Model the fold of this input.
Amino acid sequence: MNIRNIFGKVTYPDSTPEQCLEHRLVKAKMQLDGLELDGSSKDLSALSAARVEFALAARALADELIARSQHAESSDG
Done:
């Protein structure tokens, strides 16, 4: 059984928005790693899509962390 398929079906109903972004990033990383490690795979479009999703997930999480940091700084002032 493929762990990526299992992980993709997991839902997190009680997750915070930040946790959802973390889960998205982990899922994207697992998918990318799986495709990169599969030497027999010649599906370059899937690999490209996985790289894009990983980059988007990382950026979304970073944006959320920056926004939280800025909000914390403005509420401390």
The chain has a mean pLDDT of 84. The helical segments are 3-9, 17-37, 44-76. The CA atoms of residues 5 and 25 lie 15 Å apart. Residues 44-76 form the longest helix (33 residues).
